[in-house]
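Below sits our specimen:

——
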Amino acid sequence: MLLNTIEDTVVYVPRAERVSFDLMVRARFGEYRGPALMKNLTCGGARVEGIAGLRCGDKVTLCLPLLAPKEATVMWLLGDDAGLEFDRPLHPDIFEDLVLHHASRRERTDTDRLTQINNRYEREEAENLPH
């Protein structure tokens, strides 16, 4: 008897351009009020680490630089990382300003490679380099 098996694999396809950050932000979740490390950002959400006790569906408030607190919902968890979806997306101009002033210029980690597309800032920098 020949037994066919199918190996389940999950392929994550990002919905929006992600930009790498290593930015400490303030977070609120239940009784927790403290720091969290924002690892990447899109107009629609962020990946953060450092908030213990989160579960999918929980509401979190992030305090991003120079912005009113942003309400978000936990969409996924992976170890210490949490994927947050903002209740109201960032305006593209605000997103651009955060990237310009706070985005990290670091090599992407394996986790970034799984959850991040090459962003246009890296492409623009490469195009503007002398050949």
Notes: Confidence is low (pLDDT under 50) at residues 112-121. Residues 29 and 60 are 5 Å apart (CA to CA).
